[in-house]
Amino acid sequence: MFKKSQELYQQGLVNLVGAVNSPVRAFASVGGNPLFIKKAKGSKIIDVDGNSYIDLVLSYGPMILGHRHKKVQKAITKALKNGYSFGASTKNEIKLAKIVCDAFPGMDKVRFVNSGTEAVLSGIRLARAFTGKDKIIKFSGCYHGHQDALLVAAGSGLATLSLPGSKGVPEGAVKNTLIANYNDLESVKAHFEEHDDIAGVILEPVAGNMGVVTPQNNFLKELKEYLKSKGALLIVDEVMTGFRSKFGGAQELFDVEADITCLGKVIGGGFPVGAYGARNEIMEMVAPLGGMYQAGTLSGNPIAMAGGIATLTELKKQNPYEKFNEIAQIIEVFLLESAKKYGIEITVNRFGSMINPFFTNKKVTNFDEAQTCDTEKFAVFFWEMMKNGVFLPPSQFEAWFLSSALSEKDIEKIAKAIDKSMEAVSKM
Question: Is 265 considered catalytic here?
Fold first, then answer.
């Protein structure tokens, strides 16, 4: 079934690190060799062996309209005729900037970059520049890219010093990063009681890299109010959630306004794009207006701008968010009913067009609770879903994504695949 992928994997080991260019693609947490993809169209993705799957990975979020949407394809083709990269300004940068700023209350200006990681590291630098303070609080289980300062693992205590979470990250790089517990405001307050040089807090409004974990009990709103009282900024990483629960940000649904918002994924329509934005007084710290330097030769790439404009324009026209909620609810019911049928304990979390099951009997509201999952059961579930034509992220701790290209037949196939996969888990 996966013969050609296995052959390519062996070839890739020679000149690629682990035969992949991003660790999650290695399938390490589910076992087996990674799949190699040949093409995709609409709701389907096809591997080199010709196996077709309903795609619930969607390049980890950006393909919200499905693959190769005709209007996006047309816009990209048109842009390609004019050139690939200029290292100079283009009209479409202004057009996409207006679309993005109009979608986020409190965002007056935006700066485009090339990835979510770059957006976050720039957003943090901006928070430090604006406040004149050095320390940043992040939450365990929230992923904000692979920059040194945020690749940290928390100690056992609330105020334990951060330790590097990767080889090659010196302790000095994380000395100004503090760890708090998601959905736990008291863990944030504990750091402020000990430190007077905290520039801000960064978080995902809905976590997507420990599985889908939503804020509880007005957590975001109370966090923002507390930070305001302390003169610190709220940096909201909407790289994953931006434009996935509404046209704009998840923060608005929780009645909270970020001081700095970081974006990516959807705003590039499948091309490498990131962005960070804020109100004027903050963004005017950025060069050439202010003293915070950040630059990028490929930032505002004309092909990416064209793809982003076409994607967001079509997304606003479709307004698929009510449909996303309906489909996510249907999939949740499939998961829960099938798990009950086969005597398997799971918890299902979802938000907008993001959903995933946790193989645990606990409610999952933070990283510690997510860690109670039975990853061996997920691995069996994952491969059975793949064999039954549903492409999932190869990790218990990654969100599944929905696209507006999903059909009723696709949903029926997902339901059948879930049932067969839960049955396989029950036989472990």
Answer: yes
Catalytic residue among 9, 53, 60, 143: 143
| DSSP code of residue 297 | T
CB atoms under 10 Å from CB of 1, counted, come to: 11
Contacts of 147 (CB under 8 A, 6+ apart): 117, 120, 121
Give, rounded to a whole angstrom, the gap between the first and last alpha carbons of the chain: 22
Residue 141 has what pLDDT?
Answer: 84
108 in catalytic set: no
Which among 352, 319, 91 is positioned nearest to 205, based on CA atoms? 352
* Domain range summary for the chain, segments of one domain joined by +: 3-68+319-426, 70-317
The dihedral over CA atoms of 220, 397, 141, 115, expressed in degrees to the nearest 10, equals: -80
Q: Quick one: what percent of the chain has pLDDT higher than 70?
A: 96
CB atoms within 10 A of CB 341: 12
- Whether 148 sits among the annotated catalytic residues: the reply is no
Reading the block at residue 35, the tokens are 């799949």
**Catalytic residue selected from 265, 276, 410, 419:** 265
Side-chain half-sphere CA neighbours of 175 within 13 A: 4
Catalytic-role residue among 47, 55, 237, 259: 237
> Number of C-alpha atoms within 13 angstroms, CB side, residue 393?
25
Class of residue 199 by CB neighbours under 10 A (exposed 0-12, middle 13-18, buried 19+) = buried
- Give the residue from 141, 96, 58, 74 showing the smallest Cα distance to 324: 58
Task: State the virtual CA torsion across 226, 236, 103, 75 in degrees, nearest 10.
Answer: 180
Ranges of residues in the chain whose predicted pLDDT is under 70: 148, 151-165
The enclosing H or E element of 41 equals strand 37-41
Question: ∠ at Cα 319 (317, 322), nearest 5°?
Answer: 165
Query: What is the CATH architecture of 70-317?
Result: 3-Layer(aba) Sandwich (3.40)
Q: How many residues does the chain have?
A: 428
Distance CA 398, CA 140 (A): 15
Domain topology for 3-68+319-426: Aspartate Aminotransferase, domain 1 (3.90.1150)
pLDDT score recorded for residue 155: 33
